[in-house]
Amino acid sequence: MKLDGKVAVITGSSMGIGLAIAERFLAEGARVTINSRSAAKAQEVARSIGSEEMAWGVGADVSHARDAERLVHETVDHFGRIDIMVCNAGTSFIRSAETIDTEDWDAVVNLNLNGVFYSAQAAAKKMIPQREGNILLIGSILGRVGLPRRAAYCATKHALVGLTKVLALDWAPYGIRVNDLAPGYIATEMNVRDQSTSDYTDEDILRRDPMGRYGTVEEIAEGALYLVSDASGYVTGIDLPIDGGWLSYGGW
Amino acid sequence: MADGKVAVITGSSRGIGWAIAQELGSRGCRVAINARDGKQLDEKVSELQARGCMAMGTAADVSRAGEVARLAQSVVDHWGQIDIWINNAGGTVVGDSMDLDPEDFAEIIDLNLNGAFYGSQVAARQMASQGAGVIIQMGSIFGSVAAPRRAAYVASKHALVGLTKVLADEWARFGIRVLCIEPGYINTDLALPNPQTGDDYSVRDIEARTPVGRYGTPMEVAKVVAFLVSDDASYMTGSLVSVDGGWLAHGGWRSEGGQQ
Q: What is the CATH number of the domain that holds B191?
């Protein structure tokens, strides 16, 4: 198994891509911390995917630095170490830029950008003495291109591409690799919720996507496994799209 | 010429912002300058006026949405319009990502990213009512690449690239263009080595790494900004424009320009 003996924290893992990554890592022998803002939800999801020895849940809102630090500390207390941090917690926010309430803007930046930095830093502090570790940021194709009505989302996902590069440079001497995974349109709860804003439909996506379908959370989890496992041992600082060719398409 | 266009430049009491204020002023813009601290503003406004520019100054901390709204309002109250808005104010914190205080990280994001969004938004609301406008984000080569020990700066400058694309796309229908300029190492306080902030390079390092073999000047950035905000650039929006002496083009460890 590819992650035998490893301990992984996946932020925002009670559903969607985060949950799929947790399940994939479990199947490869990792022990996982499930995280959600709600402790009860995190614990319930952990119980449903693995034994008590392999999976547990911690409630923490990573947009607060102290919560991110506690998430890591509790994981190390519980499992004895931390090898992998997947900074997955994030949110979409769809609204015309001129009508965005600045408090809503701040909330998205706090979670999607600052929360990722807090989680990555808290994990790295534990990984440095181990002289190994792996940090994965979950970005988006909107870390490379723009889309109307997603100012905060696109800005924060672009920021993660930059953050990935710096952290990879800063922590390479300690044996810590840092990468970014950029999903395209994936069939998730977030996608369903986003469509309820009537901003786009399944048909729009299927027509625009070169492969003509949504990606699955399992396909993203496979990419995550590659980036945190030894298979990608010489890979750091990259932004890996898994997008059905979305970014390659330059036509109309 | 930009006869009578009203330009707001945040963080413009010195450095690149001050050069932009002078250049736009010399091309006939009415110029509103800004700094967090009002002390230097009066002097700078007088300096512009002495050269025949129409100028005003408003102190505001652009990392606070309320102060940015007040800045925009002061300009509209004074001149009745805003045609050009330059989100130039920015800062950096240099330090190992491991030891960076989360509050310091958030403070740079507040200024460099959130401040640029607040500014863009208040500017766009005014420009939409006028049916035209240009917004410039002051990015950096570190919006495209990274250097160690600059997590907040690099993340915020990459974010401005994304923000530029979305806003350009959204606001084209209002006649508003949005662009991002990416200076390389420019001869300003921000880009010169400062041992007190833990800087980790020398002037010689920069010269050797830059294909043209030297720092840029603030005016070399300001001239490009003046072009981007002019009608000569009327089909440009959502673009990244680097002004970097070839920095981003170089993929090796030392450029020929640095070899004397």
A: 3.40.50.720
Tell me whether A22 touches chain B (CB under 8 Å). no
Taking contacts as CB-CB distances below 8 angstroms, the residues of chain B near A156 are 159, 162
Number of domains observed in the structure of chain B? 1
B208 in A contact zone (CB under 8 Å): no
CB proximity B238 to A under 8 Å: yes
* Structural domain boundaries, residue B87: 6-242
Give how far Cα B221 sits from Cα of A179, A203, A230, B4, B123, Å. Answer: 33, 44, 45, 22, 22
Query: Measured between CB atoms, does A173 come within 8 Å of chain B?
Result: no
Name the residue in chain B with its Cα closest to that of A105: B114
Distance from CA of B182 to the nearest CA of A (A): 14
The answer as to whether B252 is a domain residue is no
pLDDT by residue, tens only, chain B of 260 residues: 567 999 999 999 999 999 999 999 999 999 999 999 988 899 999 999 999 999 999 999 999 999 999 999 999 999 999 999 999 999 999 999 999 999 999 999 999 999 999 999 999 999 999 999 999 999 999 999 999 999 999 999 999 999 999 999 999 999 999 999 999 999 998 888 887 766 789 999 999 999 999 999 999 999 999 999 999 999 999 999 999 999 999 887 776 654 44
ipTM of this model? 0.86
Q: In whole angstroms, give the CA distance from residue B133 to residue B126.
A: 9
Q: Which of A192, A73, A158 is nearest to B161 (CA)?
A: A158
Report the gap between the CA of B156 and the closest CA in chain A (Å): 6
Q: How far apart are CA A109 and CA B112, in angstroms?
A: 12
Whether B27 is covered by a domain: the verdict is yes
Is-contact B5 B53, C-beta < 8 A? Answer: no
A96, A145, A166: residue with CB nearest B154: A166
DSSP string, A12-61: T-SSHHHHHHHHHHHHTT-EEEEEESSHHHHHHHHHHHS-TTTEEEEE--
* Residue-range domains of chain A with CATH: 7-248 (3.40.50.720)
CB pair distance less than 8 Å for B162 and A157: yes
